[in-house]
Amino acid sequence: MTNTNKPLPSLKAMAESKLMDGVSKQTIFKLDPRIVKVRPGHNGRIKNSGLRAHIDAMKVSMRTAGTAAFPPIDVEVDDGEIFLVDGECRTTAAIELMDEGHDQLYLDARQFRGSEDERIAHMLTSNQGRGFNGLELGHIYLRLRRCGWSIQRICERNGKSDTHVQQMIVLAESPLELQGLLAAEKVGTDAAVAAIQKYGVKRALEILRAMVEKIGGQKKITKTAVLGRAFSRTTVDDVVASLDTFYNRLSKQQLSELSTVLENNDAELEGKTITLPAASLKALLDARQKIEGERQKHRKKDAKVTSAKPATQLDHDDEMFDVEDLCRG
User: Fold this and answer.
1) How many CA atoms lie within 13 A of 187 on its CB side?
2) Fewer CB within 10 Å: C terminus or N terminus of the chain?
3) d(CA 41, CA 55)
C-alpha cells in the first residue's frame, strides 16, 4: 500500500503532484545560442559604445564562470524555428565567445507564449543587467501604442508615470538627428526633454547640436547645461517670502492700481507710473539680491572647476553654456 503521507522529495514532485499550494512548475531548456534567431527590429536596444561594453563584460564573466550565473533567455517557437524574445545581449556574448574559440556554451531558456504586443511589453520588465535608456524606452512605448495600448496601460505595465511615457515617446518621434545625438550618448535624456519642453523640438535640436559642437562631443550634454543650475530651496523660500512681504505692505488703493498693470499690455502702460512704498520695494530688492548672490556662487564654482581641470576631463555638470547666446546664434 502506498504511503500518501510520504514527504515529496523535490520541487518538481511538489509541482506535479498539485498537493501543495504555492509551488508551480516552469520548464527550463538548454539551448545552443547559435540556433536562436532574432527578428529584425525586435530588440529595443540601441547599438552604441555602452551596449558594446555591456556585452564585453558579459563575455568576461562567461569566459571564467560559464553561463550558469545568467538568468534564462526567453524564446518562442514559430513554425519549428526558435526566435528570441528577451536576452539578445546574453545570446550575442555566448556566440561571440564560441566564434573566438571558446568551448561549446549553452544558455538556459524559457518558452514564451503570448501575442505580439505582449512580446514587446515583456521587454519592459525582463531586461537584465543594463536598463533601457530613454530613447530605447520611447521606441518600445511607441510600438505598444501602435499595437493599441493606452498610455495608462503602458504605465501600469512599466510602473512609470504618464508624463514619463509621453516624454519618452516624444523623443522616439523626434528628428533622426536628435535621436542620433541621444543614441551616441552625446546628449542625455533629461537634457533632450528639458530642451524640447523649453524651446520646442526644432529649436531644441539646433541648440543641442550647437552645444555638442562647442565641446566637440567629448562629454554628454546634461539638463543642467541646458537649463542652468537650479536655485537652492532656501533661496526659493526667501524669494517667496519677500514677494509675500511686498504684497502685504501694499494698501488697497495700491493693490487696485497694480491690478490695472496686470490687465494692460506693455504699449498701454508706456509712460505711466505708480507710486509704491519704499518698504515694499525693499522686499523686491531683497529677493533680487538673494537670487544674484546665489548666481555669483554658481559662477565662482564653475570658474573654479574649469580652472582646475583640463577641458576634456570636466564632469558632465561642470561645463556651463550660455544658452541664450546659442538661441541668438
Assistant:
1) 30
2) N
3) 19
Q: How far apart are CA 120 and CA 114, in angstroms?
A: 10
Q: Which domains does the chain have, with CATH numbers?
A: 29-115 (3.90.1530.10), 134-227 (1.10.10), 233-315 (no CATH)
What is the rounded (10 degree) CA torsion for 201, 177, 128, 112?
90
Cell of 26: 516552469
> Cα–Cα–Cα angle for 205, 45, 90, nearest 5°?
155
Cell readout for 66 is 560559464
pLDDT tens string 10-37: 666 766 776 666 766 678 899 999 999 9
- Residue length, the chain? 329
- For residue 230, how many other CB atoms are within 10 A of its CB? 12
Greater confidence (168 vs 315) lies with 168
The whole-angstrom separation of Cα 110 and Cα 120 is: 16
Q: Which single residue is written with the C-alpha cell 535640436?
A: 205
Could you give the angle at which helices 189-199 and 134-146 cross, rounded to 10 degrees? 70
Residue of 75, 73, 96 lying closest to 84 (CA atoms):
75
pLDDT for 136 equals 93
HSE of 119, CA atoms in CB hemisphere, 13 A? 20
Residue type (1 letter), 136 = E
The answer to whether residues 171 and 193 touch, using CB atoms and an 8 Å cutoff, is yes
Alpha carbon distances (Å) from 107 to 52, 63, 69, 110, 193: 20, 13, 10, 10, 38
